[in-house]
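Table S2 (text version). Query chain:
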Amino acid sequence: MTVGRYNAVAIALHWIIAALIVAAFLLGLTIDDFPKDLQGAAINGHALTGLAILLLSVVRLFWRVANPPPPLPLSVGALTRTASLAVHMALYILMIAIPLVGIPTLLYRGRGLDFGLFAIPSPFARTPEIYRPLTEVHEIAAYAMVGLAVAHALAALYHQYVLRDDVLLRMLPVSRRSGG
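Corresponding structure-token output:
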């Protein structure tokens, strides 16, 4: 079966953002496990990774609008197409919203961002009544995004290895055929 493939830019953005999401999520989960003297660096790394996700997700969204994805195989039914569109839309929203909530969360904790060559200090004093609810929203949204991403990956694997319709090949960096 021949399937249309995403272009190289879309594929690269997909996998880079996926790797950054995994890194940001794991850092977010383990920040409290870092020694106290490294927690600031871990938080900064988490925040910078989130900013990278935000920027690359905006680029990816614009790229997708300018370069529509290849059509799904005709074997993919209407309900699956609708579910795919809904999950993709939710993932885009979350990839942008989570860092947008994370930035004020960080700033209202009284923390700035250190980019190495320069730093941006927080303009706010530590304000728990603001950052605590923002932290909750940030964390819940992150878990929702990871849950959707896992469902997305499982659906791709199901299509590839059970339905054998090569949907997964559309986003792989190298063209491969499913095994017999």
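Notes on Table S2: The chain is about 65% helix and 0% strand. The chain has one domain: 8-171.
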